[in-house]
Amino acid sequence: MSVLVVGSIALDDVKTPLAEQKALLGGSASYAAFAASFFGPVNLVGIVGRDFPQAHVDLLKSRGIDLAGLQIAEGKTFRWSGEYLWDLNTRETRSVALNVFETFRPELPEAYRSAPIILLANIAPDLQHRVLDQARQPRFVIADTMDLWINIAKERLLELLARVHMLILNDGEARQLTGETSLIRAGRKLRELGPRYVAVKKGEHGCLLFGDKGQFFSCPAYPLEDIHDPTGAGDTFAGGLAGFLAGRGGTEITFDDLRHAVVHGSALASFNVEAFSLDRLKSVTPEDLASRVAEFRRFVATD
Ligand code: AMP
User: Pocket residues for ligand 1 (CB within 6 Å)?
Assistant: First the structure.
């Protein structure tokens, strides 16, 4: 089964306490599509400007990512710039230039409309709705979001929750959206707003997964000593999770499948933060991924 990924494609300037790199391939859809490509076919919908380097297009193509849905518009590619503080957990956005992203209207090529699994990576809720308006009875829809949309488009985001099977967000966003301090209460409350499953990411502390009838799973984060660039960890997690679900075939998606998907997404995210942009993921082999997933298992097993 293939995954349809819709989101941002960006050129990022990233500064950490140790290094600074400019015009890196970034954006929620770039990370998510790349991560999903570990498990099978991926269709990507996004927009870039005429300045978008061919090398980035070639990199995505080299992973078998279908780019029939990539719009190349007159103007410049979306630019985002962020700086991490010394703990590498706190990030400040330095600048955002929407450029061609301002005019982005996702259009699904005919062949994408019956995609079984759709990942609505982080973009404005209006655009996420627009994707679902064009889709034909997807089996499983996952939505990611960010604090910006909770602040400026909360109503549209809440409407979206009623249309998706799974919501992925971080701990701060879960608290912000529900007004709950307890993440357990927040996870349960979010499920009542529509999605059958909710994944609450806790950065360096792992991830909580909520399902129906009180189903609950907690996944640790990989204990990395050297983090070089956390950008895109959340998008990589979401893409890996969606890709894993697509890769497991056509039967009904169960909570057990989601537990495995969360571990695979977490493993890929842990590779991603080891270098800037997609530099580390580029060299990860299926064997590397399998061995890191096995390590995750060992970290929590008691027998
Ligand atoms: P994450 O580290 O998972 O929060 O994602 C970082 C990526 O999100 C960067 O590569 C940015 O280009 C992208 N990004 C930043 N702001 C936005 C936005 N408002 N909409 C979509 N993508 C964004």
Answer: 8, 10, 12, 26-28, 80, 122-123, 148, 231-235
How far does residue 33's CA lie from ligand 1's centre (Å)? 14
* Cα 284 to middle of ligand 1, angstroms: 22
pLDDT of res. 255:
97
How far apart CA 183 and CA 294 sit, in angstroms, is 27
- Per the document, the length of the chain is 303
Cα distances (Å, whole numbers) of residue 115 to 43, 103, 122, 136, 298: 9, 24, 18, 8, 35
Ligand 1 pocket, mutate which of 11, 21, 28, 120 (most atoms under 8 A from CB): 28
pTM above 0.70, yes or no: yes
pLDDT at residue 27 in the model = 98
One-letter amino acid of 67: L
On the 0-12 / 13-18 / 19+ scale of CB atoms within 10 A, 76 is middle
User: SS3 for 167?
Assistant: strand
- Asked if pLDDT for residue 290 goes beyond 90, the answer is yes
Tokens standing for residue 300: 């929590």
Residue with tokens 């929590």: 300
Ligand 1 atom closest to Cα of residue 236: 3
pLDDT value at residue 204: 85
Q: How many angstroms does the Cα of residue 143 sit away from the middle of ligand 1?
A: 14
Torsion from C-alpha of 155, 161, 167, 169, nearest 10 degrees? 10
CB atoms within 10 A of CB 55: 8
Please check the confidence at residue 67 and state whether its pLDDT lies above 80. yes
| Pairwise CA distance, residues 191 & 103, whole Å | 32
Find the radius of gyration of the CA atoms of the chain.
Answer: 18
- Average pLDDT over the chain, rounded to an integer: 96
Report the distance separating Cα 270 and Cα 280, nearest Å: 10
Q: Determine which helix (DSSP H) or strand (DSSP E) holds 190, and give its type and residue range.
A: helix 183-192
